[in-house]
Design a protein that fits this description.
6 helices, 73% helix
């Protein structure tokens, strides 16, 4: 039987993929770290008594009726994304076959979460000016990540003979 050498059988990938694999490794390490940092530095401080009461007490200057569910949703969503990013990071190094699809799904959901956060916070009275530029930058980064990695994964699947 004449069996062709493929990356799966030889363990070697085309040279052109080496650089992007390095970027993937960096991303697999940095994304969970950034998400966990966001949870501890940006979200959890809002749950301290002084932050919580400032945003959730009717009559206070920063009060918004939907701020409680928004804060809880932001915390829960960020924890889920961080856990998912950690799992993907581990799977990346274990070489699971589903990793490409799972990463793309993660990036799309992350983009939707960041965009929804940007839109909801932008609608809140008095919050539109706070962090608007950095929030827009987060949305842009998430959108670019989806586009770049989608194109890369599509090309790499073709090169490895896995897709169209």
């Amino acid at each position: 039987m004449n069996q062709q050498a493929t990356p799966e059988t030889t363990g070697k990938y085309p040279g052109q993929l080496f650089g992007i694999i390095i970027l993937s490794i960096i991303g697999a390490i940095i994304i969970p770290v950034r998400l966990i940092d966001k949870i501890f530095s940006d979200i959890l401080p809002l749950f301290r008594p002084e932050g919580w009461s400032a945003f959730t007490t009717p009559g206070s200057e920063a009060y918004y009726a939907l701020f409680r569910p928004i804060l809880v949703g932001e915390l829960v969503g960020s924890i889920i994304l961080a856990a998912w990013a950690i799992i993907l990071g581990v799977m990346f190094f274990v070489k699971r076959k589903l990793i490409l699809n799972l990463v793309l799904i993660f990036l799309v959901i992350h983009f939707i979460f960041v965009l929804a956060d940007f839109l909801v916070v932008g609608m809140m009275r008095g919050m539109a000016q706070i962090g608007n530029a950095s929030s827009l930058m987060d949305v842009t980064k998430a959108a670019v990540a989806v586009m770049v990695w989608f194109l890369y994964f599509k090309v790499s699947k073709k090169r490895m003979g896995e897709g169209r």
